[in-house]
Amino acid sequence: MLRASPSRPCPYTKMASPGSSSARALVQYVVLRGDLQREPLSWPLGALVAQACHAALAVVHAYYGQADTGAYLAEGGSMRTVVLEALDEGALTTLAETLKQHNIDHKVWIEQPENIATCIALRPYSKEEVHQHLKKFKLLK
Protein backbone atom coordinates (compact mmCIF):
# COMPACT_ATOMS: atom_id res chain seq x y z
CA MET A 1 0.00 0.00 0.00
CA LEU A 2 1.29 3.45 -0.84
CA ARG A 3 1.89 5.60 2.17
CA ALA A 4 1.70 9.36 1.98
CA SER A 5 4.03 11.60 3.94
CA PRO A 6 4.03 15.38 4.39
CA SER A 7 6.80 15.69 1.80
CA ARG A 8 5.31 13.14 -0.60
CA PRO A 9 1.52 13.09 -0.73
CA CYS A 10 -0.01 10.01 -2.29
CA PRO A 11 -1.26 10.94 -5.79
CA TYR A 12 -3.57 7.92 -5.96
CA THR A 13 -5.93 8.48 -3.04
CA LYS A 14 -8.87 9.33 -5.31
CA MET A 15 -8.50 6.28 -7.56
CA ALA A 16 -10.91 3.38 -7.60
CA SER A 17 -10.08 0.68 -5.11
CA PRO A 18 -8.67 -2.54 -6.61
CA GLY A 19 -11.82 -4.46 -5.76
CA SER A 20 -14.19 -2.01 -7.42
CA SER A 21 -15.86 -2.81 -10.71
CA SER A 22 -14.20 0.16 -12.42
CA ALA A 23 -10.68 -1.08 -11.64
CA ARG A 24 -8.82 -2.79 -14.49
CA ALA A 25 -6.64 -5.83 -13.92
CA LEU A 26 -3.08 -4.51 -14.21
CA VAL A 27 -0.01 -6.63 -14.87
CA GLN A 28 3.68 -5.83 -14.82
CA TYR A 29 5.56 -7.85 -17.42
CA VAL A 30 9.25 -8.61 -16.98
CA VAL A 31 11.18 -10.26 -19.84
CA LEU A 32 14.49 -11.84 -18.85
CA ARG A 33 17.14 -13.30 -21.13
CA GLY A 34 16.98 -17.08 -20.80
CA ASP A 35 20.44 -17.64 -22.29
CA LEU A 36 21.99 -16.07 -19.20
CA GLN A 37 21.07 -19.16 -17.16
CA ARG A 38 22.43 -21.64 -19.70
CA GLU A 39 25.99 -22.51 -20.70
CA PRO A 40 28.33 -20.94 -21.54
CA LEU A 41 27.10 -17.95 -19.49
CA SER A 42 25.60 -19.92 -16.55
CA TRP A 43 24.63 -16.98 -14.36
CA PRO A 44 23.53 -17.98 -10.84
CA LEU A 45 19.80 -17.86 -10.09
CA GLY A 46 20.27 -15.03 -7.61
CA ALA A 47 21.94 -12.85 -10.24
CA LEU A 48 19.04 -13.44 -12.64
CA VAL A 49 16.45 -12.60 -10.00
CA ALA A 50 18.40 -9.42 -9.21
CA GLN A 51 18.25 -8.36 -12.88
CA ALA A 52 14.46 -8.72 -12.91
CA CYS A 53 14.14 -6.83 -9.62
CA HIS A 54 16.36 -3.98 -10.84
CA ALA A 55 14.38 -3.58 -14.06
CA ALA A 56 10.98 -3.78 -12.33
CA LEU A 57 11.93 -1.20 -9.72
CA ALA A 58 13.55 1.11 -12.27
CA VAL A 59 10.48 1.21 -14.52
CA VAL A 60 8.12 1.75 -11.57
CA HIS A 61 10.34 4.60 -10.40
CA ALA A 62 10.49 6.11 -13.90
CA TYR A 63 6.69 5.98 -14.32
CA TYR A 64 5.67 6.55 -10.70
CA GLY A 65 3.38 9.45 -11.64
CA GLN A 66 1.50 7.42 -14.26
CA ALA A 67 -2.02 6.48 -13.11
CA ASP A 68 -1.74 2.74 -13.86
CA THR A 69 1.54 2.53 -11.94
CA GLY A 70 -0.11 4.08 -8.91
CA ALA A 71 -3.14 1.82 -9.16
CA TYR A 72 -0.86 -1.22 -9.45
CA LEU A 73 1.15 -0.22 -6.39
CA ALA A 74 -2.05 0.40 -4.45
CA GLU A 75 -2.97 -3.27 -4.98
CA GLY A 76 -0.32 -4.23 -2.41
CA GLY A 77 -0.27 -8.01 -2.00
CA SER A 78 -2.54 -8.47 -5.02
CA MET A 79 -0.06 -7.15 -7.59
CA ARG A 80 0.29 -9.35 -10.70
CA THR A 81 3.72 -9.80 -12.28
CA VAL A 82 4.47 -12.10 -15.21
CA VAL A 83 8.08 -13.10 -15.93
CA LEU A 84 8.73 -14.14 -19.52
CA GLU A 85 11.82 -15.45 -21.31
CA ALA A 86 13.62 -13.89 -24.26
CA LEU A 87 15.87 -16.50 -25.86
CA ASP A 88 18.90 -14.21 -26.13
CA GLU A 89 20.11 -10.62 -26.35
CA GLY A 90 18.89 -10.32 -29.95
CA ALA A 91 15.34 -11.23 -28.95
CA LEU A 92 15.49 -8.75 -26.06
CA THR A 93 16.75 -5.98 -28.35
CA THR A 94 14.03 -6.70 -30.92
CA LEU A 95 11.39 -6.53 -28.20
CA ALA A 96 12.77 -3.20 -26.95
CA GLU A 97 12.54 -1.78 -30.48
CA THR A 98 8.96 -3.04 -30.87
CA LEU A 99 7.91 -1.54 -27.54
CA LYS A 100 9.50 1.78 -28.46
CA GLN A 101 7.74 1.84 -31.86
CA HIS A 102 4.38 1.28 -30.14
CA ASN A 103 4.99 3.80 -27.33
CA ILE A 104 4.92 1.13 -24.63
CA ASP A 105 6.65 2.44 -21.50
CA HIS A 106 9.49 0.13 -20.47
CA LYS A 107 13.03 -0.04 -19.11
CA VAL A 108 15.87 -2.09 -20.55
CA TRP A 109 18.15 -3.06 -17.68
CA ILE A 110 21.83 -2.88 -18.62
CA GLU A 111 24.10 -4.70 -16.16
CA GLN A 112 27.22 -2.69 -15.34
CA PRO A 113 30.15 -2.70 -15.63
CA GLU A 114 29.67 -5.49 -18.19
CA ASN A 115 27.30 -3.31 -20.27
CA ILE A 116 25.03 -6.30 -20.98
CA ALA A 117 21.29 -5.93 -21.65
CA THR A 118 19.71 -8.52 -19.35
CA CYS A 119 16.06 -7.68 -18.89
CA ILE A 120 13.12 -5.52 -19.92
CA ALA A 121 10.38 -4.48 -17.55
CA LEU A 122 7.18 -2.75 -18.63
CA ARG A 123 5.36 -0.38 -16.35
CA PRO A 124 2.04 -1.85 -15.24
CA TYR A 125 -0.50 -2.14 -18.07
CA SER A 126 -3.76 -3.96 -18.62
CA LYS A 127 -3.01 -7.24 -20.39
CA GLU A 128 -5.10 -6.17 -23.38
CA GLU A 129 -2.87 -3.14 -24.02
CA VAL A 130 0.41 -5.03 -24.37
CA HIS A 131 -0.22 -8.75 -24.81
CA GLN A 132 0.06 -8.62 -28.61
CA HIS A 133 3.71 -7.54 -28.26
CA LEU A 134 4.56 -10.26 -25.73
CA LYS A 135 2.57 -13.30 -26.87
CA LYS A 136 5.54 -15.02 -28.54
CA PHE A 137 7.45 -15.17 -25.24
CA LYS A 138 6.95 -18.10 -22.85
CA LEU A 139 6.99 -18.04 -19.09
CA LEU A 140 10.52 -18.16 -17.72
CA LYS A 141 11.39 -21.58 -16.32
From TrEMBL:
Keywords: Hydrolase. The keyword Hydrolase applies. The keyword Ligase does not apply. It catalyses: an N-acyl-L-alpha-aminoacyl-tRNA + H2O = an N-acyl-L-amino acid + a tRNA + H(+). CDD domains: PTH2_like. It is an enzyme of class 3 (hydrolase). InterPro entries: Pep_tRNA_hydro_II_dom_sf, PTH2, PTRHD1. Its EC number is 3.1.1.29. This is peptidyl-tRNA hydrolase. It comes from Chrysemys picta bellii. The lineage of its organism: Eukaryota, Metazoa, Chordata, Craniata, Vertebrata. The gene is PTRHD1.
